[in-house]
Amino acid sequence: MEKIQQQLMKIRGLLDLRIFRVLLFLVLGLVLYASMFSNVKPEKMDLRLFSIANQTVRSPVTISDKESTEKKREEAEDSVQDVYYMKKETNENRVDLITSIFDAATEVKKELQDQVNASEGTSQGQESENSGGAPSDNEVVDKMKGKLTEEVTRSISDSVLLALVSSSKEELSVAKDVTITAINTVMNRRIPADEVENSKRLVEEELKLTSMSSQLKAAVIELGRYAVVQNEFFDLEATQELREQAKESVEPVKILQGQIIVEENQLISREVFRQLELVGLTDNQQSTLPFIGLALLVMVMVIALYYYFHELKVSGDMKQNYLLLFSIIFILSIVMLKGISLLQQFEFSDLGYLFPAAMAAMLIKILVDDRLAILTTIILALSGTILFSENITSSLNVNIGIYIICSGLASIMFLSKQNQRMKILQAGMFVSLINIIIIFALLFINNGHYNAKEYTFYFGGAFTSGIIAAILTIGLLPFFEAGFGILSTMRLIELSNPNHPLLRKILTEAPGTYHHSIMVANLAESACEAIGANGLLARVGCYYHDIGKTKRPQFFIENQMNIENPHDRLPPQTSKNIIVAHATDGAELLRQYKMPKEIVDIAEQHHGTTLLKFFYHKAKQNGNEVREEDYRYPGPKAQNKEIAIIGIADSVEAAVRSMQHPNPEQIESLVKSIIADRLQDGQLNECDLTLKEMEIISNTLCETLKGIFHSRIEYPEITKQKVKQA
User: Fold this and answer.
1) What is the pLDDT of residue 416?
2) Strand, coil or helix: what is 229?
3) CA–CA distance, 287 with 317 (Å, rounded to integer)
4) Which residues of 501-511 are buried (b: 16+ CB within 10 A; e: fewer)?
């Protein structure tokens, strides 16, 4: 282990140089890229036109097939029939036209009759050689034509006009009604251009059945045929609109991810080959896009990690420690992830659920912090979606990604309390439960149909993942803690053993100091746990915080039992030097025994730069010119909550011990005055204690001290007389 620590020290030394830190991030990026390279590399297939497929080929992507979409739209457009509309006004116009012709015949007939009557009413007895006589046929036809338009007269023969005028009024009325009825009957139907002649025949057949004179019947038949015209016309606008609607209603044709393009032993036709080209599966397409995409994803991951460590607010040595620690855990996790993914070639595509996703999260949560643990979980989840995509139709296994991220976050949430190292196995059980819930949620959402054996496999994989993560965390944690000098719970428990050489040294050489340290440990531990700080570290640190007093134990009041106080004979400056030296002597002694840095810091910083008021005022009373700075501890001030609390508890215990029969009010007043004095003296300026936490610390110390110094019942003295009587 010492050799490993030496090697790690050398590596941490290199990390002092920025170029080596950048190189380390590049190594992490290369590890990520190399692990996923084969999973994004397009599979090469022998897919030639008119060859036989040697395997079933599925589409690796979802892509729009524009050519097929356009073809379907053309088919939909061609399937739309032309739209025709019936022009009803045509029927009305033709009926009105025939009616006008009959009305014209009636008018001409009346005019001719009036003319005849006028000629018959000339003077009686007078004879004229030119009187009397009916108009000629030509005159009748001319009169009719005068009543009609040129277009009508061109379309209707003279015999029709003559027959209409020659018929009686009754015959003309009947002929009119019959003709209009027949025209209405036929024209109320749709008459396209190619049906006009058939419609004319229908009118003719209907009019032939009427009982009229042959001359008049022939006339009305000709009029009926003339009246029937086309009334159905092509609607270009409506047709185009319907065709557009038909085209728009066609959904874009897509080749879906996982869709079978060609089955095994099937001929690769031109259409199939075109689809293979479209999804990029033909031999002549070597796309670099997957590699570029992977490089961009890895770049984002590495940048996120770099930004985290760049913004991490810890000392340079600690940052290097964390960076190296994270790199080892992260690479170990990626190697495990890749190793499990390689088993996919044996058709075990669901083995990814066995990956102990919570291991890295728990280790980093315990050894570094929550934020890095969450970031690591996200990166592992993204990597898992690519690494476990071999035997599925998608290029990303989203289910595995969700599973890994939920598993990691569950472990981080469970270990959010103090004494987290003691709950690793419990966290593993909790993660197993979450894994089971998540995996079955994903199976049910996908509406998969599985048998009992498959459900058992998923249940076992999810449960095993959480347990393995806890076991690996418990097993690896001591190695990381020892290798990186991280103070673990197990190490603290070892240091708290009374048989430790330094504790035995305090007990034998300075028993008063040992008792004092135990009392301070009780106070500091309860106060630390009340605000969420590390109570165990505070307790163990208190055991060793005054180890420096063993060098000159008799100069400290708790060890001056039945002896004269040597400070009474010493000048204040000498006494000050002896008292102040116990902090630096203690730190030096702890370093000689290779104690953890946290314990050394407690011994060195628990007094901060406080003033030795007794000797300072004593020196001033002696008339010496003294500076306050000369009677202060060298520091440094408390750098964290635990050391600040130990310093307060140390002063409080010593002060309360010097009081005679302290009551709760006196204890509370004393505690608050000591905390206020530390605040005003600036001793808490360099730790992150809040005012609210200091109020909690004050209340906790008071409660603990009241329990220690509680009042006891005074038993009355039994007099000798009472004894004799008894």
Assistant:
1) 66
2) coil
3) 45
4) ebbeebeeebe
